[in-house]
Amino acid sequence: MTNYLFAHLPYRYLGDYIKYILEKRINPEIFFNADALDNLVMEELASYAKALQAGGILCTIHAPFMDLNPGSPEPLIRRATAHRFSQVMDAAEILRPVSMVFHPGYDRWRQGDSQQEWLGHCLDTFRPVLERGIRIGSAIAIENIFETEPSTIKGLLDAMDSPSFRHCFDVGHWNLFKNVSMEEWFSVLGTYIAHVHVHDNNGSRDDHLPIGDGSIDFDLYFRLMKQYAPDAVYTVEAHNREKVEIAMTRLKEHI
To answer: 134: helix, coil or strand?
Structure first.
């Protein structure tokens, strides 16, 4: 079993933390929001990429997601989403991430009975992303957000039908929105998992707590991970340096 460990880091802080990352040997999962992409200086990004690579530090990328929907029935929203995805793939050409995480945009309260329409639009949006990801050597991983059960993500993964198009299981989001057990989720999507986001909560807010500070059964979680996805990439999603260090220490005790 070979697991790479990463820690969430917005791109705007990469310059401030590059020395810390190199000293502590922390692999970052770099999040690009709209502002970061619109103001991206490629020469600066290339200098960060060179420093990470020289230090033997890997990275992953979290794509932008706010108000985006790759399967939206509104063409303007899809075009905006495709534009942002293209921008983040430009950044990936320089950073060469191990994997890249994208939100699927599905919301049963909005899509409802239009699941097939959403799926068709999603395929159109993600195909060029996947093609570029394969050329770069990066897996594309679709993260669960508001999904209460795994059928829509499985439908997208099956339709794309590529070993480079996988699932990012976010256990914190599962705990917030689930109507199926963790065992059932893994029985459907476990073998598709290539990337995971690891954080805890008490089921009412997306608190992004370190493992053990919420109500998630992580003993069960790690048993299922070992069974279904022993080689997955792990990303700690904590929102300050102290919690990142605590979360990384606790995660290392399990894998």
So the answer is: helix
